[in-house]
Amino acid sequence: MMKLALFVLVTLLGAKSSAAEGSCACEAEEYGFTIDCEDKDPMLDALQYLQRRNCAADCSSKGCELNYLIVQSHHDYCPEEGIPEEIEDGFHDYDTSCTACDIQRDFIPGAPDCPAPSCSDNTGNEAYVNLIEGGCLQDCSSNFCRDNFFQLRSTHDLCDHDVLTRASEEGLHDLERPCADQLCNVGEGESNQLVCDPHAGHDHGEHGAFEWAGVFSLDDASHIWSMQKVGGDYADPTMRLVLFPTDEPTEETMESLEESAETLIEGDSCEIIEDGESMTPASGGSCFELHVGRGDDSTFTIRTRGISGVAAYAQHVPTEFERDQHYLKDSNGADIEPIAQEGGGGHGDHGDHGDHDDHDDHDDHGEEKHSCACEAEELGFTIDCEDQKTMLDALQYLQRRNCAVDCSSKGCELNYLIVQSHHDYCPEEGIPEEIEDGFHDYDTSCTACDIQRDFIPGAPDCPAPSCSDNTGNEAYVNLIEGGCLQDCSSNFCRDNFFQLRSTHDLCDHDVLTRASEEGLHDLERPCADQLCNVGEGESNQLVCDPHAGHDHGEHGAFEWAGVFSLDDASHIWSMQKVGGDYADPTMRLVLFPTDEPTEETMESLEESAETLIEGDSCEIIEDGESMTPASGGSCFELHVGRGDDSTFTIRTRGISGVAAYAQHVPTEFERDQHYLKDSNGADIEPIAQEGGGGHGDHGDHGDHDDHDDHDDHDDHDVKELVASMDGRNGQAGVMFDVVAKKDIHIVGIGSIHTTSRGGVDVEVWTKKGTYDGFQRDADAWTLVASTSVPGKGRNKPTPLPHGIMDEIDLDQGETQAFYVTLLNTVMRYSNGDKDSQAVDVSNSDLEILEGVGKGYPFKSTYNARVFNGSILYEVR
Questions:
Q1: How far, in Å, CA of 638 to CA of 622, rounded?
Q2: Cross-strand partners of 240
Q3: Cβ distance 287 to 265 under 8 Å?
Q4: CA proximity to 81, closest of 176, 146, 168
Q5: pLDDT tens digits, residue range 771-818?
Q6: Helix (H/G/I), strand (E/B), else coil: 244
Q7: Do 742 and 762 form a contact (C-beta atoms < 8 A)?
Q8: Backbone angles phi, psi at 474, to 5 degrees
């Protein structure tokens, strides 16, 4: 189903509540799927993905987010008779874990409006009961049935998905057929909900009317404001622009005029300026509505005689309209850059505008990449060298959305991965020429996954590349000067072609020049018989090892270690299917008997455990079999059975303790049973552990949370309270309050959330008491930590080093404010509940409250935002 390759692209979450995402049309456009009520296969494929990946329990992965959006947008928009019954019955399993986009039932011409729903009481469910008791399943033609059906329909389509009971939800589907003639429209469904307004969902912070503000020093009688098509289209055909002349073009001036700008930009007095026309800003400020022309470039003259500065406020970010020209120039064509700006970020050198990059952090060279097979599995695309249409569709998306300038959106990230994985894996002759020529426009802005050219049986190994010098480019020059384009059969041509191939496939994409990159494609045909293999390509690179990318800390062979006190002749180690599958069909487990089951013992045996787990002497233990750990330690390779649960007996007679080292985290295999029990079925918890975290109470395992305390740090007295990680929004930083419920030491910030997979600079500021009222007052804050760390990317915590800040003592009931910020706009945080002082997450020791997003440093404030990350602390 290659239709799903771009269909299961990437997307975000779903639940039609106040936490909803933007419009479904914009989500679909950004992530490349289509809302098509006639095409049931993608709906069902997406539902099966949700079921297979257990997204009802955890919807935070990109794959779960996307596939829920596909299901939810069709469920909420399409007529009931067009929705497969499996969708109706299975969709609501995901309401509480996933987040919805915004869409209503498609408009029905001529039908009356549905009644306004009452979402805060039981009206909708009562309507369903009335329909059943009134016999409307048999005959729905009466006014009584019509009125109750309309009420049920309105509640279903306009209220949160959890307002109706499961019976009412599924009952509505059963009533569709007998009530087929009872039709009404909800909301303003007549508008085209399948067309995206790309700016409707932008977060404008405090100032909802404009996305961007800038202040400029001027020294010319006229200036040119330009808007250009990017990727074949204008970002928007119109844009409102407010201009204030000023003699003091400073950041303070820009900020002081924001409210006045908002009033003007939202008013009815904006003068329309067509492409090629002029505008003159009045002394008290003027609003202009710029209308683009039919060409690729539109320009508007600003008369600025006698004006030494201007503060500008734009409905959209001006760089969205930049293709190869800066948006503001003087009459001589010189770029005029802002003295200060808010929103949109900078854009570096405008010398030729062909490759300016607003996102330096996307340089992924030298950092560990994620397997392309795992990225493809998570995001739902397929690496298929025969499917050139998918490659070309993804490239067109990158071009249309100007991803060469900003690759931070999920749509750009996904489509780059589709193009890059095929470009790096497939044989050159199978890659469309457009990919070869256009792919490298995105190298500096986007982040690649890890894959090598597919293995060619019988071919020799390519030579090791020299990525730090010009060897690859010199090989290309040798090939051209040596006539290898005409005849590539000589050893000279072969050796240089192998060197060029090796550099291309194994070095960073910017090591070769553009000429060498594209020249390799030209050389493919004459050198078709010159084949070599790079790296260890014989392995199946299209199969994801879900644990290959795990960070095993210092000990790459095992993910988890634990030490236990034992008091029984035998114990049971269990592995369970979770969400229908085992996390892995095998797992190596090293066991050391010990009379001193302490954290120190566990740490002292780590190197020995690593040697055993990487060795060739692991004894295979099948489901139901037993194992006996030797005094010097033993390695066992556990193989799961065909059932939902697999168990392995550990003979422990005479053993008072054991140190265990596992290839995977044992809780990955927990569904409703703890992984280690004694012969009576009592849970055996570790005295100390590393990796994987704790998992609280295992009373019934039905809903245990593996992250209550996270007290698995080197010092086991240090605890960790983890806040949200959904990353629905972002800017440079976030301010928030921490309230102590006991006497505690704040040890540090444990982790943050950033889109970057490159290096990021982090600052931590703090103050006694609340942040509220001090959002822009830098003098009230103290900088307590400044560090650089490698970002882990979206939906993964980026840890900060321990010990970079001094402990902060908090007495019970005291509040401490934190401002955690990056130096650029790649921090992620969540949307809050409008109350910036609401509790986001808490335990028995402390609370983390909702806060505000911030521009850097101490700039724009975005209300009701939630810190994504964790706080490290000790109870005094």
A1: 6
A2: 289
A3: yes
A4: 176
A5: 988 988 899 999 999 988 887 777 778 889 888 899 999 999 999 999
A6: strand
A7: no
A8: -65, -35
Task: Express each pLDDT in 622-671 by its tens digit.
Answer: 999 999 999 999 999 999 988 889 999 999 999 999 999 998 888 888 88
Question: Measuring CA to CA, how many Å separate 669 from each of 484, 544, 647, 675, 682?
Answer: 56, 18, 11, 7, 18
Q: How far apart are CA 674 and CA 685, in angstroms?
A: 9
* Helix axes of 491-506 and 514-523: crossing angle, nearest 10 degrees: 130
Element (H, E) at 768: strand 759-768
Closest-CA residue to 295 (of 342, 209, 341, 237): 237
Residue type, 668: E
- Cα torsion angle, 673, 675, 680, 685, sign: negative
Q: Which residues contact 121 (CB under 8 A, 6 or more apart)?
A: none
Determine the 3-state secondary structure of 647 from DSSP: strand
How far apart CA 34 and CA 52 sit, in angstroms, is 22
Share of the chain above pLDDT 90, in %: 34
Tally of CB atoms within 10 A around 176: 17
Tokens 């844009």 correspond to 239
Residue 292 near residue 234, CB atoms below 8 Å: yes
Residue 695: pLDDT above 50? no
Residue 77, token pair as written in the block: 């928009």
The CA-atom distances, in angstroms, between 581 and each of 52, 67, 573, 584, 669 are 8, 19, 18, 8, 9
Tokens describing residue 405: 């300038």
Distances (CA, A) of 539 to 458, 533, 536, 550: 14, 12, 7, 19
CA 312 to each of CA 226, 227, 268, 319, 536: distance values in angstroms, whole numbers, following the listed order: 14, 15, 18, 14, 56
Classify residue 630 by burial, with Cβ atoms within 10 Å: 0-12, 13-18, 19+: exposed
Q: What is the pLDDT of residue 17?
A: 35
Strand partners, 512: none
242, β-bridge pairs = 287, 313
Give the Cα separation of 466 and 506 in Å (integer).
Answer: 9
Which SS3 state, helix, strand or coil, does residue 778 take?
A: helix
DSSP assigned state of 96: T
- What pLDDT digit, counting tens, does each position of 46-101 carry? 888 888 777 888 787 777 888 899 999 998 888 877 788 888 777 777 877 788 88
